Amino acid sequence: MKLPLSQASIVQFGTSRFLLGHVAAFAAQAIENGNSQEAILVVQTSSRPEGKAKAVALAQQASYPLHIRGLRNGQPVDEQLSIGSVAGCLVAQEQWQALEHHFIYMARWVISNTGDSGYQVADDTSLADVPSSFPGKLTKLLYARFSAGQPGLTLLPCELIGSNGHVLKEIVLQLARRDYHDTPFEEWLAAHCCWVNTLVDRIVSAPLEPVGAVAEPYALWAIQQTPGLVMPFEHPAVEMASSLQPFELRKLHILNLAHTYLVDQWRQNGLTESVTYVREAMQEPWLRNGLSEVMMQEVLPVLARELPDMDLNAYWHNTLERFDNPYLDHRLEDIANYHGDKLTRRLEPVVELGIKYEIATPRLCAALGRK
């Protein structure tokens, strides 16, 4: 049975397979476990035909499939889950009045994952009947909620942007100042809405038709503790922290660095024609051993000094399982895009920290020398 819309206190902007395999899945599991009653209203924000088809399926189906495939503690995982947290779906361009009414009277939390360009406003205005940008839509909806005398709400953006909650807050405040010239509204946004920085980590590798997703077992939603924050649910993958910087550094300099170092060795040793995927590279003993050596002898010792409170060995173990995932076709060629920039961003800070802590990093230095 589909959950009632009156229960949908979470408004999710975006029908991406990532959110279906991440936050929406956590919400469903929390409901199943009796830890939450908070359902989701999904908003289709773009006019792409494939997105509208997914929106129709989300609106009609009581649940959608989530296929978990990968490794957990060294054992293969191949599970079919039924995700029933979505109570409805609205297409913003066609159902704005219904969306606005729900946002005013039923919403308590906002989730978003609007892609790399999701925060761009360009020449959009929140005064349009239906603004074209996500920040424009959000500002218009927040003004309607404020004008109705409703309390503020909590915003938990999932875009891969540093300090995403603070960045979104500033964009909305700029639009509010430009479009509404209403000081009490600006004060309400700043003081009564809770803008939360979050960091997401999960590979959701493929869509299922008409709606659903394939995802790896590993999942993380790191949430920065913020005054006034009340989460919609509890879940083992949700980690509360005073700062997200340790999570960001861990992901950048273990997961992302390992990908880039693996690609560097793959290119350096002429394997671009014979090895296609990360999982294939990990089956080459000398590639795997070389990666393990640079991580265990250089990267982890350096990061252990910089991040003493994090269990880096456990994260590296999880990373190896993610790289070994027999079901995931992660192309080395895709990781190799902008390789020089990635070497600089992912390896160079570890080398600099190595100098600070007097830990030698010869393999990382050699890779940086090939930029």
TrEMBL record:
It holds the Pfam family Mannitol_dh_C. InterPro entries: 6-PGluconate_DH-like_C_sf, 6PGD_dom2, Mannitol_DH_C, Mannitol_DH_N, NAD(P)-bd_dom_sf. The keyword NAD applies. This is Mannitol dehydrogenase. SUPFAM superfamilies: 6-phosphogluconate dehydrogenase C-terminal domain-like, NAD(P)-binding Rossmann-fold domains. The lineage of its organism: Bacteria, Pseudomonadati, Pseudomonadota, Gammaproteobacteria, Oceanospirillales. Residues 244-367 form the Mannitol dehydrogenase C-terminal domain. Residues 9-226 form the Mannitol dehydrogenase N-terminal domain. The keyword NAD applies. It comes from Vreelandella glaciei.
